[in-house]
Amino acid sequence: MSRLFRPEAVAHKNQRLHGTVVLANTWSHVALTIFFCAIVIALIVFACYHGFTRKETVDGVVVPDLGVIRLVAPQSGVITSIQAKEGDLLQVGAPVFVLTSERTSAKGATQAAINDALSSRMAHLSRELEQQSIQSGNKSQEINQRLLNLNVSLKRLDTELALQRRKTDILRDLSANLSSLATEGSVPKNAASQKAAELIEQESRVSALEGERLSIQRDIEALTALRSDLPLQSGREASSLKRSMEELKQQASENEAKRQIVVRADASGRLAGIVVDQGQAVSGEQRLASLLPKDSQLEAELYVPTRAAGFVRPGTKVLLRYDAFPYQKFGQFNGQVREVSMTTISLAELKPAASAEPVYRVRVRLDKQDQPQTLKPGMQLSATLVLERRTLMEWIFEPLLGISGRL
């Protein structure tokens, strides 16, 4: 087989004109290589361990953890007296405000006139009750005296009746004897008839005395029954008078309640936020002041929009900035989420001038409350919620992770 090229041509091409290339190794090349490798490694480490923190800024307010008790006016009226001052520690039932709903007419104060009339009627009934008690006692004494007199009369009548009966018996025997003698002719018939007439007269006298005795007995029985019924009758009359007095007292109490109303503390706590002054007219259910329950702690109530609520949970760190204490001077304060509401609420329900965007109510425990500045309920604040933290590597590969998750 013939060759394509001559051996002489091939040998000529294999000869090098400048000899073998020799690369010289220097320390600068090694140093640069190590330097750039270190930079790449550092960037990889930085991307793996350093990243960005997602934050959300929301608004809120300082509130007590046990809530705020609202003291309201039960009805419209005028504040006549304020019994406590801002910051006082009150016990349950302590009077705080005194209101009056006094109405006036051309003749003067209407409620006062009604009270005077009711007091006059109660005084009249009280006098009637005393008189009724005196009359009952007098009547009892009168009945007892009449019974005593009737019993004396009855005893006297019994004695007289016994004598009359004895006399009648004697006349009856005498008349019988005279009648026998007259029949025999020993005595005149006129004498026997006269004795018979005397006997009839004495028997009639006995009948009269017996009728009188029966009448006295009936009077005694009637008075005895009346004496027995007297306490019951007197009690009924006294009860009726007392019932009328109680009704008048109830009317007076209701009238006084309408006229003068005392607003008392519903629980033990510290009085705060008095919004009325003495002499001010108020309407029914109008807030007069607030009561902070005893032993309550202040916390922050945040209103987190739904777009930022996904990663908010108990324990989430919060940075707080109070509007009353500029953070440029006083710095930020730490807190932790204590509670997250289960459902959303409308911000307009809490703040009438706010938008109707639904929010979650988040309660934040304040890590420190012993600052030189005193926090007060109702202070406005803004807060930064530390939601999540991602490294640079996660941010870089997030699209790829999302694609793999969909695949």
TrEMBL record:
Location in the cell: Membrane
Domain (AprE-like beta-barrel) ranges: 299-386
Membrane topology per record: Single-pass membrane protein
Any one of the GO CC terms: membrane
Keywords attached to this entry: Membrane, Transmembrane, Transmembrane helix, Transport
Primary localization: membrane
Transmembrane segments: 27-49
Xref: InterPro entries: Beta-barrel_AprE, MFP, Secretion_HlyD_CS, Single_hybrid_motif
GO biological process annotation, one example: protein secretion
Family designation: Belongs to the membrane fusion protein (MFP) (TC 8.A.1) family.
Stated name of the protein: HlyD family efflux transporter periplasmic adaptor subunit
